[in-house]
Amino acid sequence: LTLPALLALHCGGEPAPPPAPRVRVLLIGDSITAGMVSEPKGPPYATLLAEALGPRFQVVNLGCGGSSSLDWTRSWGVGMCGGEYTLPNIYVHRALPALPADLVTVLLGTNDARGIKEPMRVSDEHYETALRELSANLLADGAKRVMLLAPPFFVESVPNMLRVVRYGDAVRRICADMEGVVCGPDVRLLLGVDDFEHGNFHPNGSGHRKIADALARS
Q: Fewest CB within a 10 Å sphere: which of 60, 91, 158, 214?
């Protein structure tokens, strides 16, 4: 018997029940998830979400600056994460050791649409294929549920905005036909121009708070 149980029996009471395990939530994403906030600044959404959910939840931030949807797959993935190189790829190095989890949220697409650290901008077909592979890997490796978030708009060009629209369509298709995958808040519709510093694709403090609040209600 443990010491608390022995004390309870000595005092004539029943042993206290063990505390319920915390709900484990993993956050996968790029620099937005990792915590980059534009002006006017505020806490990043990962921090705000952990505060909103409270001590019954364990929120683990796996955000990786500069990563695209391709980078989080086993088949196409790379080992570069926020300027640091890890082997064999981001998924195996960061996601796999953090599993199992009750929920994994995925917010990717900003770097895909802009072609950051990719040979070119990621097509919506490749974006969808990558998210399907990532979701399947997460579920197979111990995630009870995967929640996909459509990425935010960044007003860079009309073609780029249309690409993000198609990314959101891909997210909805995946949620509709993959068991264990659900759609989270649509960040495209959630954030407006006032939620970004001019010329910066990272949400500002108000944008991060909107993401956190929407996730906490999901």
A: 158
